[in-house]
Amino acid sequence: MKTLAEFVKQRRKEVNLTQEEFAERAGVALTVVRKIEQGKTNMNLDRVNQVLAMFGHELAPVNSRELQTNK
Fold first, then answer.
1. Which of 1, 8, 22, 39 has the fewest other C-beta atoms within 10 Å?
2. What H or E segment, with its residue span, contains residue 67?
3. What is the mean pLDDT of the chain?
4. Are 43 and 68 in contact (CB under 8 A)?
5. What pLDDT is attached to residue 28?
6. Where is the HTH cro/C1-type domain (predicted)?
7. Is 50 buried (19+), middle (13-18) or exposed (0-12) by CB count in 10 A?
8. CA nearest 23: which of 33, 14, 37?
9. Please, are residues 51 and 69 in contact by the beta-carbon 8 Å criterion?
């Protein structure tokens, strides 16, 4: 399974956008894109979802019990 950082970086490159261009189109600061691609863990979920919306995806909190019952 890909990490969030790998996913965003790969998809951004597939559409031939620099980090700056991507940030502008996603409506977030350049630092948000950089932090995501660097795998930083202290991120604002709303900002992450703004970036992921560019690819039709979203992150949401998941209860650990739900993960165990879905195995």
1. 1
2. helix 64-69
3. 89
4. no
5. 96
6. 8-62
7. middle
8. 33
9. no
Tokens of 1: 């399974």
Written as six digits, the tokens of 18 are: 């620099």
H helix or E strand, kind and range, residue 10: helix 4-14
Q: What is the pTM of this model?
A: 0.76
Beta-carbon count within 10 A of 27 CB? 12
CB of 31 within 8 A of CB of 20?
no
Domain boundaries, the chain: 4-69
C-alpha to C-alpha distance for 13 and 62, rounded to whole angstroms: 29
> DSSP letter at 26?
H
Six token digits for residue 19? 């980090």
Homologous superfamily (CATH) of 4-69 is lambda repressor-like DNA-binding domains (1.10.260.40)
